[in-house]
């Protein structure tokens, strides 16, 4: 109840009517009224119970998935079964940097540029025309404060001057393949974890050029770095295969999960872009020398996403002893044999595995998950390593308190923004400044430069939109599935639509 002189006002009165009562009976100024609203809201926020912790080992549903319908389990390898230590990022960065020096003859001083492991995050876009690394939300809006040229942040004013708008046209981001129009996208989406050290190298070199007043073409730099890092993958594969303990995180529960699936007569297959010797070294460390016994089909060098999109590329037998492929036509897929290349069409035709009976796990929303769910009706699971860090951050008391207050502060700004008296405008401007600070605080705890992989200040990121569209479930590690039975149904939570806020649904 709100006390006014000798009487009371019902607490259910609207804010507008409350203002009238306050002004009438106590001759409140706009400033006093708004300060009172702020104080009462702040007290309410402090008394509000904080949300429960999110389970860091949880499996989260974007779409309803009944595991009792799944007969076949498929897996990617990199960042799905094998989780890498930070040492792999450093290795890829150093190999790529050396290639820039040796093959492309970049300045010798480049050798002194060390990797900054916490600079970039997955899901960013690089504008190959303008040389900017930036973060987009699900509406293709730029997240101001998360735009970098090299290692230097670009101001909001300069960003608007460059793009003329905060929203980027879809053809600029994704390209335009409509009839009579073949415009290549100007932006590259960095959707896998291998791209993080690549972006670190790109931004380091760009910063060196800028600081030393060396002219460079952003697209040429991008292509040189991309080609340097990717051409080093065979070298990386050899080094990691010889030192698996240094680069791969152990996961004793992986074998338990495979055994659980086999005990319940599930079929298992592996489809990976990586070469056999690299996969074999990692799987022997993770599962044991008998790891192939768990899989009904193993396909290496699959060249995804072409594996999922092409129809005519033949599948071949890979001779692991001679380290080469065999030329005979493959008419059946046998356990214990290693296969090479091929297409998902052949995999389905030779096994009969198709539709919702197949659940495939990968870490890349496009090359692993998009085509199999859109074109073939497979169920999909995304393994997102960053969830461990993201959920740990979400569960901190400071983040919960700031997120709660940010929501409530935003609400009172929305409710009272139409006050036009000068003193009211001044108070609301102070609220807006506090809101901006809160938004920066809740962003920077995930990553100082770019914030959360999953969210801009308030909207889902471009990466999140694709993840939620193409993955039925997602989690941080395959082993988390051990916490659920093989007949478990994952149910998505009822999302609150904008028009439902404040209704009985919430």
UniProtKB/TrEMBL annotation:
Pfam families: 5_nucleotid. Keywords: Hydrolase, Magnesium, Metal-binding. One of its GO terms (molecular function) is 5'-nucleotidase activity. The keyword Hydrolase applies. This is 5'-nucleotidase domain-containing protein 3. The active site is at 76 (nucleophile), 78 (proton donor). Binds 1 Mg(2+) ion per subunit. Belongs to the 5'(3')-deoxyribonucleotidase family. Transmembrane segments: none annotated. It comes from Papilio xuthus.
